[in-house]
Amino acid sequence: MAIDFNAKENRHTYLGRDAQQEWYDIIHSLTEPKGKDIADIGCGGGIYSRAWANLGAKSVTCVDFSDQMLADAAENTQELKNITLKKGNALHTGLPANSQDIIFERALIHHISEEDRVICFGEANRLLRSGGMYILQDRTVQDINLPGSPEHIRGYIFEVYPHLRDFENQRRPDTDNVINGFKEVGFRHVNTLSFLEKRTTYNNFSQLANDFRLRKGRSILHELSDKEIAYLIDYIENSLPSLTNIVENDYWTIWTGIK
Ligand SMILES: C[S@@+](CC[C@H](N)C(=O)[O-])C[C@H]1O[C@@H](n2cnc3c(N)ncnc32)[C@H](O)[C@@H]1O
Hints:
Blueprint: H1 21-30, E1 37-41, H2 47-54, E2 59-64, H3 67-76, E3 83-87, E4 100-106, H4 114-127, E5 128-138, H5 141-144, H6 155-160, H7 164-171, H8 175-184, E6 188-204, H9 205-213, H10 226-239, E7 244-258
Helix pairs in contact: 4-8, 9-10
S-adenosylmethionine binds next to helix 2.
């Protein structure tokens, strides 16, 4: 069953880790966030909203349609002064037009139907000032289908449960469709890049197991029963060459466009 972002039991699903250096580096290669007004749409628990604040943003507006996710983001960003939380839908956020320098959307559009994605891109365009940058980060079908390995632990999920590939293939964006959607709503200089983002380092296997058991940050695991997850955890444990200092990486695609 698809993840319910409003359910109390999914509290802290997108919380409990920090953006890693690889992510900061890639953002720095794209833009200078210092002094900018930034909206993090589909912010979840605000992991990346914090990161934008760390990068020197003038303001970060965290938008999400889920009260539970916004409560998590509030908890995660409580000491930061330049953060505003706003309940809103990525298709019509309610934020003023021409108010932002950067719109960031990570792991959002695979939760939005293919027909609605162009509305989402249009909303990002409406919010940006002229010259502002849209940064969309998500996993494509190609990113998802990379095999399981100690460097790509997520790949083991599909090795054990191949039927989940169909579920993923249906919701994951296609690179060219996104590029065309960006152009359709008026973005210029549309670019795409692939990158390997370090998600986190687990000191020991039980930390990784706990993350999977709680289905943290991986909505695909909501398609599995507790028993199936337990089997998957055993499989991963037997596949990894070392059960300490486990680095988990994920393959991502980033699309950028300029208004
Ligand atoms: C997979 S989580 C990603 C959270 C965060 N961006 C991150 O990368 O850690 C997707 C988030 O998008 C939100 N979301 C999904 N569809 C949305 C929509 N149409 N409008 C606003 N938020 C949405 C969910 O509530 C959830 O918090």
